[in-house]
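MOLECULE: protein
FOLLOWS: sequence and fold
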Amino acid sequence: MNEDRPHQPSRRRVIGTLAAGAAGGVIAESQLAQSQTPPAPPTGPRKEGPAHKTEVPPGQLDDYYVFFSSGQTGEVRIYGLPSMRELMRIPVFNRDSATGWGLTNESRKILQEGVLPEYRPHLAARGGIYDNGDLHHPHPSFTDGTYDGRYLFVNDKSNTRVARIRLDVMRCDRIIQLPNQHTVHGLRVQKYPRTGYVFCNGEYRVPVPNTGAVLDEPKKYAAMFTAIDGDTMKIAWQVMVDGNLDNVDADYQGKYAFSTCYNSEEGVALPEMMAKDQDWVVIFNLPRIEEAVRKGDYKEINGVPVINGRHGSPYTRYVPVPNSPHGMNTAPDGIHAVANGKLSPTVTVFDVRLFDDLFNDKIKPRDTVVAEPHLGLGPLHTAYDGRGNAFTTLFLDSQVCKWNIDLARRAYKGEKVDPIIQKIDVHYQPGHNHSSMGQTKDADGKWLISLNKFSKDRFLNVGPLKPENDQLIDISGDRMVLVHDGPSFSEPHDATIVHRSKINPKSIWSRDDAFFADAVARAKKDGVTLESDSKVIRDGKKVRVYMTSSAPVFGLTSFEVTEGDEVTVHVTNIDDVEDLTHGFCIVNYNVQMEVAPQATASVTFVADKPGVYYYYCTWFCHAMHMEMQGRMLVSPAKAAAPK
């Protein structure tokens, strides 16, 4: 085996600790991580190498977009690659003061519609929306096996939601909360013929429906696999399964999806979940499931067709794999898919061409496995270069392992070949990784990002809460070369690298965009033209304020309301210059929003405190930006006449 350096003695000791922990069910990943002693930080000048490839000179553009999830921050972050410069953030499940996401009427409508009716009373005190989100797994839509630039789909593990982001404007336009399911962890999309389906793994087992009629009876719990129609953002169907679903991927033929699944014991505590030596990968037969929905072979629960996919179902197959598998990754060759072992030093390689025979009962489940190489401690996720090589993160070894699929198949048949090509240190404990275009048939084998959970000693100390460390690796040659470290905040979790040719965002909004439909409809009723009128419409205690913005003035320099009025302010940016964004903030009134070129944004609030309150532009737009201001005059409510 070819390694960059031998294992440290401390890592050898981890093997025994891991085995003991697995048997007793008492060891945590954080404890395992801290059992390793990191090397001293590097000193002296950095060695010459291919790091210059990451430099993007002034006036030139990056070759790729990188869409990072952000974990508990609830947003998507866009980086350029290879520079690894952060370009923009897209608020999704979070609240964002800069853009007004979660404050504007347009964004609140999306957030409110993303809550199931049964949870809306529970959230009424918060305005009907969640205050948190745990965003994982950003994946773009596909057509014919490659990215098509339409959408980016992401999931919220904490509140069982899925969101869709329009890539033409880089803005979230739909959120859906999934019924009959508890959390969404793994999320991937249908690759062929197009997206199509968005596949969502329900990780935790709960009663279905979860109404309180069943509580502490785990054997009556179930996990759910959901397919969302990516065009309509409505649930197409769900499949009830055994065990806890983890990560998911799909084939390049449009026939199968497959998920890693742990907790075959169906326990609710760690010792119970670790009792067996094996768990499984669940394979979903998409044509059979669609036929079942057409024929009515399902039970409707909360308005959704729910299909029985437990053991023995004609719609699923369960393939035994080592205990507690994690990542599920399809190779760009359209042939292979890999389940990563996590608690086993192996990855399990499937040949998806054998799934037809499996569902026709011509072969046994394990006959679909064509390789199972031993790579190292804690394999979590695998990426590909399109040249037959795979790159697997090893959480406990703090390494990325490069190995060859064909060599692994030959070794599985008994040939004396070593599939491992190289291992490289990363810092530290890598989770997800992603290669450039590596989840598509257009994998180009140039770059790999390793998302590492720990960064101790890599950056300036910022206190007990450390950033994580995203490392960029050049995989274009025969050897992997680490070329960049970059800190990131709050458990970014996953990333997707998309060549810039696949995405074509707009520079200014189109005035007929659906985002403004409600504002246009309201203005039409009021006899207002958003692009030219600035006026106040009074309707009892409801006041609608319309104004344009054009650097450096608002269409209204003041407007007057009465204490207790419900005020809705619509601002339309009539500048059609690229990158000329305005903002609108009312001082001391919790009102703030961004209005991009040719956009309309609105916010509703109660004028509950009398006085003079300035509003001003919050996005620097002009040399006279500071003078772009106006006044909201709130007159006191009249005291009630004495009886």
Observations:
- The chain has eight helices and 40 strands.
- The helical segments are 9-24, 29-34, 105-113, 270-273, 286-295, 355-359, 405-412, 517-525.
- Confidence is low (pLDDT under 50) at residues 1-51.
